[in-house]
Amino acid sequence: NRDVHEMPKKIIELYAFIATDNNGDEGITAMLVGNKWLPMVGADMDRIESLRPVAEKIAGIHGQKIIIAKFTNRVHIEDIVPQDMPIKDKWK
Q1: How do residues 42-63 score in pLDDT, each as one tens digit?
Q2: Residue 27 belongs to what domain range?
Q3: H/E element, 32
Q4: Kindly report the CA angle at 56 between 53 and 57, in degrees rounded to 5?
Q5: How crowded is residue 28: how many other Cβ atoms within 10 Å of its Cβ?
Q6: pTM for this predicted structure
């Protein structure tokens, strides 16, 4: 297991906990941390396994099935850069 703070060198896959309602609509499962809702996603299975107990608790409380989905088709859409970054560095 990697240290929880170690990030992958490049994110090439993303895992998410997904809940389905009675109509078949899906949504990313989230957990309340402090006063903020955080989506339950991760870039590796170590992160997902660390979130599994929370997902199991949410499934039990709400009586909903939660699935773990893996997404592997990365599409780079946009770079968001600081406004004061020199033009030549924005396009690297």
Answers
A1: 999 999 999 999 999 999 999 9
A2: 14-75
A3: strand 30-33
A4: 90
A5: 12
A6: 0.77
